[in-house]
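Write out the 3D structure for:
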Amino acid sequence: MKSLIKYPEIETDMLRALIEGLHDRELRYSCTDLYDAGLRDEHELAEAIRHANHTLFCAGLNPQHYIKPIFVTNIENGDTYHDWKMSQTGFLLVFLSANESNKLFNRYKIEIIDRLNNYIRFQLLG
């Protein structure tokens, strides 16, 4: 019988950092993208992020692979503020979780749902 090989902790840490780096590479969206889409209410944004994180967690996924908190510093004045980086999936979860009353924002929501319906229809008939 062969014995088990125990790898040093450092290799495990390096592998973990590599995997996190691969996930971080997918985090291409930020709150600015949500503001541009019409989500202006900061309280509603916080609730939508909380709801999206809860959805990911309940689905057995690591929320930080989809939505990750970051801090950004303005170089000109030194102010630091809280932001979020999101993958496309995380962005859409936050977007669809928001209850914004802005007309443009809600039109975007309908457009996303229409595209999803067309995709489903194409898959079923196609």
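Strands lie at 29-30, 67-73, 80-86.
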